[in-house]
Amino acid sequence: MDKKRIVSKTVSSAVLLSLVLTGCSSSNSTDNDGTSAENTAQTNDAAKTNDAGATNGEKPKEKVTTELWVYKFEDYNIDWYTRYVDEYNKTHENHQVNLTVVPGDAWDTKIKAAQAAGNPPDIWNTYYGDIGARQATGQILGLDQYTTPDIWNDLLDNVNKMVSIKGDHYAFPMLVEPSVVLFYRKDLFKEAGLDPEKAPVTWDELFDYAKKLTTGDRFGLQMASKAYDYSWTNWGLQVGHLGHRVISDDWSKATVADEQYLNLLNFYKRFYDAGVVPKESLGGIKALAESKVAMQISGSWEISELRTTYKDMADNVGVAVMPSPDGDYTKATATLGGWTLVVDSKSKHPQEAADFLSWFIGGDPKIMMDFFQKGHFAKFPTRKSVNDLISQDPASANDEWRKLITDKIVQYAASEPLYPWEVSFAFGSAVERSLLTGQDPMESLKQAEKEINDIIKLKELAGTNPALQTQ
After folding, report:
1. Phi, psi values for residue 217, rounded to 5°
2. Alpha helix (H) residue ranges in 320-440
3. For the chain, which terminal residue's Cβ has fewer other Cβ atoms within 10 angstroms, N or C?
4. What domains are there in the chain, each with its CATH number?
5. For residue 134, what is the enclosing H or E element?
6. pTM for the whole structure
């Protein structure tokens, strides 16, 4: 999900951030979604027996209803939720899940009102960067007591860390979205005498390509162009190539006024001063499709629009890792944003809520595979078993964009920061000041350093990083 579409949800501990198709070979007959009819019947029969709990003379379990609230994302996303909630309800007589879709602009008001009334939904969406703050204020439950270890052992290692605090898991991760990917037009590469199968990998190469691709009516590259974007699109580079974030790990002091961050600010300034990037955003992937730019740095979510709105152009677009100072893709260039489902601490039925999530998000990998295929692999799995299943499906396994992003970006990407958004925005503002007003880059960084230290003092951040809390 493009962070700009739900800004209010991605500007806090991180930035919003901002999820699955079927098909598995089987000797048994399958339905149109590739699900084995025999296996489904066996699973459903077992679920009904276990759910009812009325075998061997036992007293039937009391019927329970849990509330699930989700953001109104793409149509395919909501269709997917609806399908599997309905399927769960049909196979679990004594536990029903009530799905409510909440528009993004109404989310804050609706959920705050429900929480204030002491009647929040049992299960709801949040993003990775928000988990630490929700856990610290006691709004969400630790899930290990309600689940089995195999749920968490199946997670990708970097994703497991993103949902873990103090040795417990606080969210079921649904998907990840790499924050920065390089998209480029192969035909415009050819026109400029560049190899369309060889994307730039270093900052110097990116600059050289951008100069060659810039014409009187086209910019060579589009990337971040204002303080908001400068604040989050480089989070991965900060971790992987600068060696530290803008604040110390224990959140006690700013670490932004140094040579590493000066190099990053000057990276933006070099392109800006040369006129090879637009000074104002020309829009999303539309600018690339309409030849207003020849290369674009954006999130993986652009893939969905490329393969729907601009599907005739998709074959002419290349995808690559965001270039870095040394071109080493095994060091993070992106962060992993995305969405999770959590259990509210005031849920009256936490076990049932966790059981549903174990079935829905942590169960049959075909459920999540269905989501990713429907979304044209604009978002990526958090579970090893889902990746394994996708790799067994020929069409999915041969998807070059999916394979490159999975192999070279997702597994090396960093987590989004947990500190308040204002900390990141101080650096983004420093970049913008230097570019727009001509302020000396180091002086601008020193101003950001003071702003961050003021934020640390005001919000009493020192020593509060939840990632470092063990008790």
Report:
1. -125, 20
2. 350-360, 365-374, 384-392, 394-397, 400-408, 421-437
3. C
4. 18-177+336-415 (3.40.190.10), 179-335 (3.40.190.10)
5. helix 131-136
6. 0.80
